[in-house]
Structures are given as C-alpha cells and as structure tokens.
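During the no-cost extension, the postdoctoral fellow (Dr. R.K.) reprocessed legacy sequence entries with the updated structure-token encoder. One reprocessed record is reproduced below for audit purposes.
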Amino acid sequence: MRKKMITELFINALILVVPIFAIISGIVRMLNHDPLHPDAVVAFGVVVLGLISAVMTVISITRLYKYSWKGLPIYQKTLAIAYPTVLIICIFLAPSF
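Re-encoded structure tokens follow.
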C-alpha cells in the first residue's frame, strides 16, 4: 500500500511539474520583456494544467463513487480536493491570457 501511494504521488508530481514550470518560465520572461511571446507559454501552461486537472477530477469523482469518502486513503482525499481547486484556478486564469 505504501509503495502504491509513493508511486501515485510521484507520478502526480511529475505530471504537474511541466505546466507549472512553463507558467513560471513564461511569467519570468514576461517580466524581463522577452520578445518571443512568453504570454503564449503561460497560456499553454494554464491550458495544459487545466486539462490535466479536468481529467484527474473525473478520476477522483469516479474513485469517490466507487469507494466513498471514508474508503479513500488520505493521499487520494488530498488529490480529490487539490485537482478541482487547481481546475477552478485555471478556469479563472485562462481568460486573462
């Protein structure tokens, strides 16, 4: 069980690193007035993060129906709360770019 938890959390962290890095990199480039359209990099990162969050939210909802809230381990409860929160943030950030 512990190995499965570590593997799942590691995979989730790896999946989230790329769009978060793109967002941070684009914001830094925008602050440095880079002429290579860093706003597109930020928008790409927000869209990819939103898509990942949408898919993971559906997976979390499926787990909730299958196991109920009390049957989920703590790390899956955390992910079930975190991904919809990130999705809502991405929905509000996407129109600004």
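The helical segments are 2-31, 38-71, 74-93. The two ends are 41 Å apart (CA to CA). The remaining legacy entries will be reprocessed before the final report is submitted.
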